[in-house]
TrEMBL record:
Domain Gfo/Idh/MocA-like oxidoreductase N-terminal: 5-132
Organism lineage: Bacteria, Bacillati, Actinomycetota, Actinomycetes, Propionibacteriales
Source organism of the structure: Aeromicrobium wangtongii
Name this polypeptide is given: Gfo/Idh/MocA family oxidoreductase
Keyword Oxidoreductase part of the UniProt annotation: yes
Keywords in alphabetical order: Oxidoreductase
UniProt superkingdom: Bacteria
Pfam families for this protein: GFO_IDH_MocA, GFO_IDH_MocA_C3
InterPro entries listed in its UniProt record: Gfo/Idh/MocA-like_OxRdtase_N, Gfo/Idh/MocA_oxidrdct_glycsds, GFO_IDH_MocA-like_dom, NAD(P)-bd_dom_sf
Length: 383
């Protein structure tokens, strides 16, 4: 008989709601799941009645304002950590210490030291811990990884990775926690570059060394109204933005290839422009999140005048078959989190990690720390 896994979610903004939807849909896509999620409690202290809406829309049995009460609840097996960055370490360490499994959104900690604390707590408790690197769950990304590993495009020579967004492009947007180092740790590094770094290591190879430039294009913003999100207008006094809007890196990977990584949160005209290009000795491939279910491939041709052809993700790619019956039946962002939930549930049931884990979060955090060091000291840094 399928056993329940009792869930508590800390933080019920957009990402907390994504987690709740993913867990609620798990059996719809994975009817053979060894565990059935049960939404027991949600904790959020925002003044906009989020927890009441959570109970009404998702069926949470209890609504709390203090996360400490949630993580020590004996009726909870799994804690989703989806609040602001500054609570991730404290919530995750406490939850692991209480014997709870974890689903922690990135960045798991504000820096590598905090992420290492979470990892240590997870290993000491013997619990499972997933990290929200959802872009690696895209079926077309799975195909890209397999193509590179198969040698179909030859040995990788160089790659380009871009994560560009406009969510902070408005200079009148409020000075929310995302722009304060005490609360966010970093700016676009933790928010977007963590995803980009994980994709590079998952799809191509581990980082070897890098050199980085950072910039803050909007140095001041007006104070936020309490509870305001980063895209709302500021209304108070001007204050300093304490972290980076933009990152540009040159990198060398362990396989000997070179690459460029660029990310911005203030790029006017860019919405979720996330993707990569990989060039090898015999071909190339490219993926763009805005056309998530497509992979552009140049392979099996002569060295000159080669061209790309679009390959559509199909039932044989990744876990698409659990969502759609045929090729070019697209899946979406929320589906990626269902895949993440399935992998975490399998990890809990078997005791063996599946999918992106807290170890991957620490690997990404070390890359981000190296980027900060490189930018501050204007030098190449070896990982």
């Amino acid at each position: 008989m399928t056993q329940p896994v009792r869930v508590g979610i800390v933080g019920f903004g957009w990402m907390g709601q994504v987690h709740a939807r993913a867990l609620s849909r798990l059996l719809q896509h994975y009817p053979e799941s060894p565990l059935v999620p049960r939404l027991v409690a949600v904790a959020d202290n925002a003044p906009d009645h989020r927890t009441q809406r959570a109970a009404a829309a998702y069926g949470f049995e209890r609504q709390l304002t203090d996360w400490r009460e949630l993580v020590t609840d004996d009726e909870i097996d799994l804690v989703c950590v989806t609040g602001p960055n500054f609570i991730h370490r404290d919530v995750a360490v406490a939850a692991a210490g209480a014997g709870k499994h974890l689903w922690v959104e990135k960045p798991a900690g504000r820096n590598a030291a905090e992420t290492a604390e979470i990892l240590a707590a997870v290993e000491a408790a013997g619990v499972q811990a997933a990290t929200g690197f959802n872009y690696r769950n895209v079926p077309a990304v799975d195909r890209a990884r397999e193509i590179i590993a198969s040698g179909r495009i030859g040995d990788v020579e160089h790659s380009i990775v871009r994560f560009l967004a406009d969510y902070s492009a408005d200079p009148d947007a409020a000075l929310s926690w995302r722009f304060r180092s005490e609360f966010s740790g970093s700016g676009v590094l933790g928010d977007l570059v963590s995803h980009a770094a994980d994709l590079v290591q998952h799809v191509i190879a581990d980082f070897d060394e890098l050199v980085v430039d950072r910039a803050t294009f909007i140095p001041q913003r007006r104070a936020a109204i309490p509870g305001a999100m980063h895209y709302e207008k500021g209304a108070g006094d001007l204050g300093d933005v304490e972290n980076e809007d933009y990152v540009n890196a040159l990198y060398r990977l362990k396989d000997g290839s070179r690459g460029i990584l660029e990310s911005s949160r203030t790029a006017v005209g860019e919405q979720n422009t996330y993707g990569f290009e990989v060039h090898g000795t015999k071909g190339a491939l490219a993926w763009d999140f805005r056309r998530m279910n497509e992979l552009r491939v140049c392979a099996g041709q002569d060295y000159l005048n080669g061209f790309y052809a679009t390959e559509y993700a199909g039932p044989g790619d990744g876990e698409l078959s659990f969502f759609q019956p045929g090729t070019n039946n697209p899946i979406g962002f929320d589906d990626l989190k269902v895949i993440e939930a399935r992998r975490l549930v399998e990890s809990i049931a078997t005791g063996k990690p599946v999918g992106a884990t807290i170890h991957d979060a620490l690997a990404a955090a070390k890359i981000l720390d190296a980027m900060v060091l490189s930018s501050d000291e204007r030098k190449w840094v070896t990982l």
